[in-house]
Amino acid sequence: MVAAKSFVLVGSSSPGQTVVTDSPIYGKVPRPEQEEKGILVLSGEGLELQTVGFFPLGAHVGWICQHPTNGRFYAAGGGKVHEIVLSEAGQVSFCSNADAIGGPAHLELSADGAWALVANYSAGNLVVFPIHPDGSLGPASDSKHHSIDALSHLADRQEASHPHQIVLDPAGEPSSVDGYK
């Protein structure tokens, strides 16, 4: 019996967003000649990974989740939520997408696979999208904007709410939203 091939999907951003001068590897990895944004697909056995392909999206991809039952992937980036089909050879097809109503920092799928939830960092909102039985994304069905009272000691970086993550408990209820006061 031959085992199914495994893949690793990695969202990318421009190097300009990833320069951290106090990183232990700063300056040891050459910057790419051309900046590309999209999804990198890797495959391999054990700790040995090889590039299968890079699939440009033209937008920073900050989060990728696999659907619990339909085999598709969903990615958040570039102000949208994207439905992705991955072939047995590791080729990516971008299918449907929906306006995220902000700049997504995190994407979470409900345990039953019926909903995609997005935390939008810069817009300060949480948005819910239906996932249709065919796997396609519907437009946002609900959103909540969160505001905070300005804290003078954080005024340089916390002028508004910046949600980073949504965590659902096993029953599918929000158990925490990171980035709120």
Provide a brief overview of the structure:
This protein is an all-beta fold. 0% of the residues lie in helices and 43% in strands. A hairpin with a 4-residue loop joins strand 9 and strand 10 (125-130).
Structural features, described:
This protein has about 180 residues and is mainly beta. About 0% of the residues lie in helices and about 45% in strands. It is built from no helices and 13 strands. It has strands spanning about 5-10, 40-45, 50-55, 65, 75, 80-85, 90-100, 105-110, 115-120, 125-130, 140-145, 165-170, 175-180. Strands 4-5-6-7 form a four-stranded antiparallel sheet, with no helix packed on it. Strands 8-9-10-11 form a four-stranded antiparallel sheet, with no helix packed on it. Strands 1-2-3 form a three-stranded antiparallel sheet, with no helix packed on it. β4 (about 65) and β5 form a beta hairpin. The mean pLDDT is about 80.
Order of helices and strands: EEEEEEEEEEEEE
By secondary-structure content and strand pairing, the structural class works out as mainly beta
Helix-residue proportion: under 10%
* Low-pLDDT regions: none
Main sheet overview: 4 strands, antiparallel
